[in-house]
Amino acid sequence: MTSLLPLKSATQSRDRDLDPQLLGLTEESAGDILSAISSLTARRILDILYDEPRPTSEIATTLDSSVQNVSYHLERLEDADLVEVVDTWYSAQGREMDVYGPTNSALVLYTGAETVPPSLKRALGRSVGGIGAIGVISALVHFQWTETGPFAPSRRVAPIGAQPPEPTIQESIMNFITGPGGTLLTAGLVVIAVCLLWWYWRRYRPARQQAQSI
User: Fold this and answer.
1) What is the per-residue pLDDT for 160?
2) 11 vs 82: which has the higher pLDDT
3) Based on the structure, what is the number of domains in the chain?
4) What CA–CA distance (Å, rounded) separates 49 from 45?
5) Fewer beta carbons within 10 angstroms: which end of the chain, N or C?
6) Structural domain span for residue 22
7) Contacting residues for 181 by C-beta, under 8 A, at least 6 apart
């Protein structure tokens, strides 16, 4: 009689949205990874899983090894965050089998400052810092302009003996936008955006494509 339980799903590494892992040899986690893949068996297991996620029994059959030996290496690879359980299959007897797959699309170990891959998170952080600095400078420029420029309190028209009228919120915003502070802020944002786009297309995108092709 045909089993009603699903025997196998079509889990594929290429179907999962994974990013490459770029790891410097001096990073703290590099020691765990190098220790986990020091064995040829572990490296062969990892190579098999990059080709296609599989349960322990299938890996053991492919390597002509014991399930206990494969389980040992899978545990070490999982502790090093190189593999993870990505699915559950069922045997013909209805027994659940954990299916292992890689945690990244490619593992790249590097050394040397020149090989450090570009980081989108780091670039965005620097951009936010630059925007903040430009915002502070533009606010200072605007404050100085309102104290000495045509909208300074001493230059506002008011009846004799009366205090100069305070500008409304809308007037203050328009004064900032049309003043040197707003001009400086706009120019700074445009420069940061252009630099970020240039960096993305000329450095980050090619590096990511190269890492994914490895």
Assistant:
1) 52
2) 82
3) 2
4) 6
5) N
6) 13-113
7) 138, 139, 140, 141, 142, 143, 145
Gap between the Cα atoms of 185 and 208, Å rounded:
32
In 3D space, the residue among 191, 171, 169 whose CA is nearest the CA of residue 179 turns out to be 171
pLDDT at 1: 40
Query: Tens digits of per-residue pLDDT, 114-158?
Result: 444 566 777 777 888 888 888 889 888 888 877 765 555 555 554
**Nearest partner of 87 among 55, 50, 61, judged by Cα:** 55
Same domain, 138 and 203: yes
Domain boundary pick from 79, 113, 147? 113
pTM, 2 dp: 0.50
* pLDDT at residue 3, as a whole number: 45
First to last CA, the chain: 45
Whether residue 3 lies inside any domain: the answer is no
* Residues 71, 56 contacting (CB under 8 angstroms): yes
Pair (88, 176) in one structural domain? no
- H helices within the chain, ranges in order? 30-36, 40-51, 56-63, 67-79, 120-148, 169-178, 180-199, 205-212
CATH code of the domain covering residue 28: 1.10.10.10
Residues 6+ apart with CB under 8 A from 140: 181
Is 204 in the same domain as 148?
yes
